[in-house]
């Protein structure tokens, strides 16, 4: 287990409540400018908004798999700025761009702390189609999770001292996550099964670390369009870049 993986699995509670860290140097968005792209119809009877898959990079993508514009967000489930994007950017991104087949949208988790690991594990415990909706709802409830966990600091410390196959189950219970996800279709038994799979969680954290290192990403949210980092981290700046790239 490398240093980044150990950090993600054993960082203290304070990190779960910390602000997002800064990203690396941005690319030249002008090189993405392109001609207008015509809408690409989904197969008969389908919507691109219902097409969801996992990626080899460990992400979750929604939309046309062959979309000419591929937007990737490195995001952390305990990042307030990511929560702000989910609240203010995801709906117009999905409705105005992903639905047209011009743009696909991938969330690539960058795990920062134990609460982040727990939420990410539960969000991916169901089908690929459920990941984005659950992630967005979890960001909307981030302050509730953090406040509940802060009020149960003793339970948090006990969870982090527990055996690996019990650690994240106990943390989820302390943060109220078992009941929260159960209310959204993920049964308590299924949640506990995913959270007790230490090997899968370690592999997830390892993959997150490797992908962030390879892309030189140190903070969230960080966006890439067609493999190029863009100088934007909120919707008001992301949308004009998509439009200049051809989503218009």
From TrEMBL:
Pfam families to which the protein is assigned, alphabetical: Thioredoxin_4 (PF13462)
Keyword Signal: yes
Keywords, in A-Z order: Signal
SUPFAM superfamilies associated with the record: Thioredoxin-like
Thioredoxin-like fold domain mapped to chain residues: 57-242
Tagged with keyword Signal: yes
Coiled coil: none
Cleaved signal peptide residues: 1-24
Name of this chain's protein: DsbA family protein
Organism expressing this protein natively: Qipengyuania aurantiaca
Lineage of origin: Bacteria, Pseudomonadati, Pseudomonadota, Alphaproteobacteria, Sphingomonadales
């Amino acid at each position: 287990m490398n240093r980044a993986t150990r950090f993600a699995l054993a960082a203290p509670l304070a990190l779960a409540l910390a602000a997002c860290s800064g990203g690396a140097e941005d690319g030249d968005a002008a090189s993405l400018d392109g001609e207008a792209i015509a809408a690409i119809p989904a197969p008969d009877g389908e919507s691109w908004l219902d097409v969801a898959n996992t990626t080899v990079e460990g992400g979750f993508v929604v939309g046309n798999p062959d979309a000419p514009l591929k937007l990737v967000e490195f995001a952390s489930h305990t990042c307030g700025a990511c929560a702000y994007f989910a609240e203010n950017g995801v709906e117009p991104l999905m409705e105005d761009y992903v639905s047209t087949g011009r743009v696909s949208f991938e969330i690539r988790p960058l795990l920062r702390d134990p609460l982040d690991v727990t939420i990410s594990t539960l969000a991916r415990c169901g089908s690929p189609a459920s990941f984005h909706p659950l992630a967005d709802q979890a960001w909307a409830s981030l302050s509730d999770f953090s406040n509940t966990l802060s009020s149960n600091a003793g339970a948090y410390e006990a969870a982090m001292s527990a055996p690996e196959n019990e650690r994240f189950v106990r943390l989820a219970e302390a943060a109220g996550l078992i009941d929260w996800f159960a209310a959204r279709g993920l049964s308590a038994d299924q949640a506990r099964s995913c959270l007790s799979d230490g090997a899968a969680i370690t592999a997830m954290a390892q993959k997150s670390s490797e992908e962030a290192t390879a892309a030189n990403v140190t903070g969230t949210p960080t966006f890439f369009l067609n493999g190029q980092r863009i100088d934007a981290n909120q919707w008001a700046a992301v949308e004009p870049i998509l439009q200049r790239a051809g989503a218009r």
